[in-house]
Amino acid sequence: MDRFEIGMLVRSKAGHDQGEIFIITAVDDAYVYLADGKYRTLDKPKKKKKKHVQIILEKYDIKDADDVKIKRIIKECNK
Question: Which of 4, 25, 29, 70 is most exposed by smallest CB count within 10 Å?
Fold first, then answer.
């Protein structure tokens, strides 16, 4: 069973975006697709290997979400 699920918050562990918080928008075998609502929108998510992200144990329903809602979720997590 895969522990990465759509709607989970993750923190980047590697790359130029290290330390940034994203939300998972899609999952495949080796990669997760991440959005932050600002630089990485739902239309153009970041493709990142699963080993380069750390799960934050919070999950949100993003079925009807837009970029503004994604930004609000991440902003609440940073508080």
Answer: 29
